[in-house]
Structures are given as structure tokens and as C-alpha cells.
Amino acid sequence: MTKKSDIQKLTDEIARLMAALEDVNFECQRLEIINSNLDFQLKSVSRELKQNIGMLETLEEENKKLSQENRKLKKELENK
Prior knowledge:
mainly alpha
């Protein structure tokens, strides 16, 4: 092999590696955008879940109160 052909092979290999590096950088940027979107969605769903849990807790308390009132009314009716 001659120096010229060795240099050409190295130049071609460098060009190939640079193109591959550009592809990798593009893919990293794409994945960062996806990750950011998923993070936003996760935070949004988490907020909604907390609200739903709060609502369920409130409903559970109301249900307990209604059950107690219901038991009182049953006793009152039984006593009549």
C-alpha cells in the first residue's frame, strides 16, 4: 500500500465516523425531546392523580358520615 491510499482510507474512515457521530448526536437530541415530553406528561398525570386521591378521600369521609347517619336513622326507626 502506498502512502496516498493509506491516507485516503483514513480520510474515508474519518468521514464515515463523523457521519456516524452526527447521527448519534441527532438521536440524542431526539431522545432528549422525547424525555422532556414524557417528563411533562408524568408531572401532569401525577398532579391529576393527587387531585383524584384527594377527591376519593373526601368522598370516603362523606360516605362514612352518611353511613353513621344511616345507622342512627335505622336505630331511630327500630325504636319507634
